[in-house]
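From the shared-data thread, chain only:
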Amino acid sequence: MGLGDASSVDAMTSITAITLETADPAAAQRFYSDTFGLNGQVRLRATDAPTNGFRGFTLSLTTSQPANVKALVDAAVDGGATVVKPVAKSFWGYGGVVRVPDGTIWKIATSAKKDTGPAAKDAGVPADGSGSHRIAIHSDAGTFTDLDGFAFESLAS
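Structure, as tokens:
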């Protein structure tokens, strides 16, 4: 069954959006909109919950070709992100990892090994950290917190 298989709709839970908690939602919104073009898929809300180090999750942007990976990583760095894992070829494709200004770690990758046109606009981090995950996952499964402490919320939340 694939995501587009109508017969699987009742049996599947779909993630519709992610809410990231940050000390400065307005700055984070500008970063995600200007850098990654994410305007509805990533939601933001203010928090002062303590956190440090790796927060237990990595978000990924998957692109169609290596030139797009490079362009997105460069744009993220220009927007204030720091490189965690430099962009490089690997057995599986091409990718890199950045920590954006709000502290979220993003892996930007493609399984393609060659560019097919001009560019469009493992995480590599230690598994330590403490405090809030600072993320909420919106789904059609209702509101609950899983065993790892990740909060799932209904889309209306």
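The longest strand covers residues 15-22.
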